[in-house]
Design brief:
ten-stranded mixed β-sheet; 380 residues; TIM Barrel; alpha/beta; binds iron/sulfur cluster
Length: 380
């Protein structure tokens, strides 16, 4: 996850470069339940409104949570499916809060209603993230349900009315890119705390011409709009936190933008970006799915490291007998192709390895989702 606003502040108000604190443990994204009331087109869990067998029971969830706490996991992101469909979501959330985790809820927002907002507020989630894939009909089409945009917006409003920090997660595709300027306006008009722009994490095709490819051009244009909005918001003291996900090349693209717009700040921003260090799947980001299987992140459901019913997370996570985990934890990673020769590996860390695996059949091959042209990865 690339915290754009944080680095934009370094452009406007640089802070000293002091040694970074190492996270005590990975952030755990936990898909508590696969059931969902929607069937979104880009859903990575291919959820449906049915019960999925073999899911962790609530006592099992509590046992895992104790282990995560002892392993010094700082953050739990409770997700699904739709986590609000879990019959014990509030009991589980409260237990997580009592154990001292930073607890976030990742929801589609349609089930945040007048009926449960008091319970949601009583948990004091540090953050509630709600997905929007465009405005009105665009969103409804993605979500395959008429009225879901209005329902999600209502959920956001209820959160805000109850002083719950709420944000929007937007997954960029060629079908909703036309709504992107309107999404920026929506964030501003509704004074939304956080905007998470996620790149679609599908494999796509390999060996594309990066200069001519429509999707890469689209991504570049969107990122430039995002940088400009972020700059404007930061300059005007508007507090909309912007983060991006699933494409760590965003950070390198940002560095080139800073070099063009604020050349005096480029060295400082570069040092800060290197300190951040790019992709952290398998290191500082972990996933537990609804069945208790542990994965290097949410897009690795086809690669399981172990199951928390059989082995504690605290033993599974540091185990590098799994070659993918061994490589992910290596610094630098054993990257090949463009990523292997890129001058910005220490900022991007080879981006999203699951895309390389899907397209090239080789986890360490170049990331086919890198939208930077050769001059941008080889210039210094
Ligand atoms: S070539 Fe690879 S390491 Fe370099 S910016 Fe692109 S994705 Fe990142």
């Amino acid at each position: 996850m690339f915290r754009l606003s944080q680095f934009m502040r370094e452009v406007l108000r640089p802070t000293p470069l002091i040694p970074a604190r190492k996270p005590s443990g990975p952030v755990v994204i936990w898909n508590l339940i696969r059931r969902c009331n929607l069937t979104c087109k880009h859903c990575y869990t291919t959820s449906a409104d049915i019960d999925f067998p073999g899911e962790l029971s609530t006592p099992e969830i509590f046992t895992v949570m104790e282990d995560l706490k002892n392993f010094k996991v700082p953050v739990l992101i409770l997700s699904g499916g739709e986590p609000l469909l879990h019959p014990n979501i509030f009991e589980i959330s409260q237990r997580a809060k009592d154990l001292g985790f930073y607890v976030a809820l990742s929801s589609n927002g349609t089930l945040v209603t007048e009926q449960n907002i008091q319970q949601i507020a009583a948990i004091h989630y540090q953050y509630v993230g709600i997905s929007l894939d465009g405005i009105g009909a665009t969103h409804d089409k993605f979500r395959q349900k008429v009225g879901s945009f209005e329902a999600s917006m209502h959920g956001i409003k209820l959160c805000r009315d109850h002083d719950i920090k709420a944000g929007v997660r937007f997954t960029l595709t060629q079908d909703n890119v036309g709504d992107f300027p309107a999404m920026l306006q929506l964030i501003e008009a509704h004074d939304i705390d956080k905007f998470y722009v996620s790149h679609l994490n599908y494999g796509g095709r390999g060996n594309r011409n990066r200069r001519d490819d429509a999707e890469f051009q689209m991504t570049r244009a969107v990122m430039e709009q995002l940088f400009e909005a972020c700059l404007r918001w930061e300059q005007n003291g508007l507090e909309h936190e912007i983060v991006t996900g699933n494409n760590d090349a965003d950070a390198v693209f940002f560095l080139h933008w800073v070099r063009a717009q604020f050349p005096d700040r480029a060295d400082h921003v570069q040092a800060k970006l290197e300190q951040w260090g790019g992709n952290s799947s398998g290191v500082n980001v972990a996933n537990i799915d609804n069945l208790g299987n542990v994965h290097p992140d949410t897009f690795w459901w086809h690669h399981t490291l172990g199951n928390v019913k059989q082995r504690p997370f605290s033993e599974i996570w540091p185990d590098i007998t799994d070659p993918i985990m061994a490589g992910l934890k290596q610094r630098p990673r054993p990257l090949e192709g463009r990523c292997g020769t890129c001058h910005y590996q220490n900022i991007c860390n080879g981006n999203t390895r699951v895309r390389a695996q899907q397209v090239h059949g080789n986890v360490w091959a170049e990331d086919p989702g890198c939208y930077l042209v050769d001059e941008e990865i080889y210039s210094t």
